[in-house]
Specification:
This protein is mainly alpha-helical. It is built from eleven helices and no strands. It is globular and about 45 Å long.
Amino acid sequence: MLLVLGRDEEARVVLERAMALEPTSSGYSNLGALEFKAGNFQRAAQVFERAIELGKRDYRVWSNLGAAYRSLPGEEARAREAFTQALELLRVEEEVDPRDFSVQAAIAECEAELGELVSARERIERVLGRGTTDPEILFTAVKIYEKSGMRREALNWLRAAFDAGLPVHYAAIRYRTMPPDPPAADVVTWHRDVSFVGHFFNLAK
């Protein structure tokens, strides 16, 4: 619950105490998410690896591990391996219930991470076309469109995700611009009394 509310430091204290007493795969998975959110990608990867060692055969953990390695220089092969493993686990989930929107969105995200952008967009568009209002699925569409270089579509779905109740901290982890844009440190400022959402859309215009 603390993670969902964005109360990261409180969540970290609780998780570290719990892991000291009784290490669990789920606990390490949540702790890895905190490390990733804080930008500690090397530590996040180590923690996600620990979660997997403890038996977490969950596509989410493998996908998170892939994201951590993707954020580290020189770890592209490990990132691809993790995303591939996540996709294999997702295929099993898809066989159980091919109409599960969350599974379909997760497959699309893994496909995008593996460079299969056309397939990823087609899949997420099928999910969106069925009228889902799940903010996390809508945010997955944002990431896929942004990775595809389709910023207008990404921003449209980002607004829809916020309208559907996406917590602001989901999109407030860190700023990173995409080529050929200048580095984020050269272009990002926030100096007026404006909400994060307002600032984000002004920046993206």
